[in-house]
Amino acid sequence: MKLIIAIVQDEDASRLVSGLMDEGYSVTKLATTGGFLRAGNTTLLLGVEDDRFQGAMSIIEKVCKSRKQIATSPSPVAGAAGVYVPYPIEVMVGGATVFVMNVEQFIKY
Ligand code: 2BA
Predict the structure, then answer these.
(1) Distance (Å, whole) CA 1 – CA 91
(2) Whose CA is nearest to atom 22 of ligand 1?
(3) pTM of the model
(4) Are 44 and 13 in contact (CB under 8 A)?
(5) Residue nearest to atom 35 of ligand 1 (CA)
(6) What ligand 1 atom has the least distance to the C-alpha of 7?
(7) pLDDT (tens digit per residue) in 6-39
């Protein structure tokens, strides 16, 4: 069994959960915040049997889209007058950031 931890954009989360549930995957959805943009994103936890792992990854890859986001720089630079002003930056946020772990035990009480 594997544990998939997928960090996705909020815009894709609902469709992704539906797509996974429709195929019989169990999903836990967490409301999370990215450290760099300080904006909300969604983290999904999926415990999947090894033979169903690729199926889950295919759904994640198909549903989650990369997007450009404009954000205020997290580290403002000093302007000409020595005043620190935030400036807008454009970052490409990935469709999904996925961590995969082997599960040693899976227990339900
Ligand atoms: P954030 O930390 O808010 O990052 C959003 C996007 O900002 C990132 O997209 C990346 O394009 C950019 N970014 C992040 N850190 C940066 C930096 N130090 N300098 C310049 N640009 C930077 P993604 O890489 O697709 O990441 C999307 C979200 O996935 C992240 O949101 C974070 O919540 C999570 N994530 C990504 N890599 C991670 C990791 N190694 N460990 C834990 N969470 C991660």
Answers:
(1) 34
(2) 36
(3) 0.90
(4) yes
(5) 97
(6) 29
(7) 999 999 999 999 999 999 999 999 999 999 988 9
